[in-house]
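Why do we bother with holo predictions? Because pocket geometry can differ from the apo form. Keep that in mind while you read this record for pyridoxal-5'-phosphate.
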Amino acid sequence: MTSLYSSHSDDQPRIRDEFVPLDFDIKIPKYHIPEDQHDPAKIYRFVADELMLDGRARQNLATFCTTFEDKEVRDLMDLSIRKNMIDKDEYPYTAEVEMRCVQMLAELWHASRSHKTIGTSTTGSSEAAMLAGLAFKWSWRSRREKQGQSTDRPNLVTGPVQVCWHKFARYFDVELREIPMDPTRYTLPPEKLARFCDENTIGVVATLGLTFTGHYDPVQTISAVLDELESQTGWNIPIHVDAASGGFVAPFLNPEVKWDFRLPRVRSINASGHKYGLAPIGVGWVVWRESNDLPEDLIFRVNYLGGNMPTFALNFSRPGGQVVAQYYNLLRFGRKGYSSIMSDLQDIALFIAAKLGQMGIFKLIHRGDEGIPVVTWTLQDGIPLPFNLYDLTHELRTRGWQVPAYSLPKNLQNTVVSRVVVRYGFTMDMAAAFIEDVIRALDYFRRHAPAHPLDEKECHGFNHL
Ligand SMILES: *Cc1c(COP(=O)(O)O)cnc(C)c1O
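The structure, written out:
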């Protein structure tokens, strides 16, 4: 048996391949569907006991996703468990709530009232990115066809992007031109942009909240460079902003930063509701500036659900609860609540950065004040140390903390960094405890220097994307 997600390789014998519950009266196979029916409470016990062995989500400092929620969110998810997001005619109020969220986000991102903004919820930013990328590809192709030009070789120009854009490019057959990471700024270097663009560029993706470090790409400068390029060449290259994390941070922490629909070249924006949107895992958003930015060809209208609702999505069925929870959060926190949460998270990030800085061996790459509340650091050059950041990850895990260590992308692949994503539910007290555990780890390395420091493969670096 092999599975894409199998945690066992077939040449490794399994230690046990059945469950033996506490009361020992039944055995349940782990890898076969059991023959008999079983008592729900007992089965619940088995399943819950295995899940107990997972890491603690609130100590998972690798993820960007929500790991803390109001009880009311659980109640609303419960109310929604039977509702399919695609059944918009059967559940018109769930559909209405989705549309209200799209309106609220369009307004948060400064879409003009005179534009017919259009958007949808998705399963996350990855699906949102696929949809935005497809809209770019379709629009570019129809522009080129009208001019009688070839449509064989579309390309997408980006800075250091999240893996979803690599997926988009491969799955939908677009050349990805990822500008290598800038060693001083880490973000997309606008002065290099023009060299990567041509008449086949379907769009430029800027990231608000870089996965690798937390920085914001300089969207306003990128836009100005593309304005200049258009005046020289006539190429009107649109921008999509991947604001997976920053879409719910920048409007509250950095309202003066122009990255959104205030820039006419920004045609679409995505964000993960389940990151700093504070919704539970399973919801993203994509909004287009105007309905013209979403080619009509991509919209499907199906009549077999009893209505004739337009949809643009990769999935068909999808849970409604996350969208409802997003709506709840927007109402519950309001602009003031989001602002105060984001500014608390930034204070915590700055506290962690300051404390790490004082240890004298770490070089901070992002402190949490130039982008999202994320702290990223590397080891200072020229200080001989008996351990590396993979060892630190390993040691912190003994205290329950899950902190990723990974190498940066192209151009900086020799720089290994660690990163802490400060999220709602992570308190200043926890940050202080975390710092104490870093100090404890360094002290441990002083007394027990690792004979063979770990490498990337040996270290469970955690999924940092
Ligand atoms: C997390 C992330 C994604 C992928 O988002 P999902 O919601 O996990 O699908 C894409 N881009 C960036 C910048 C991200 O941080």
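The chain has a mean pLDDT of 93.
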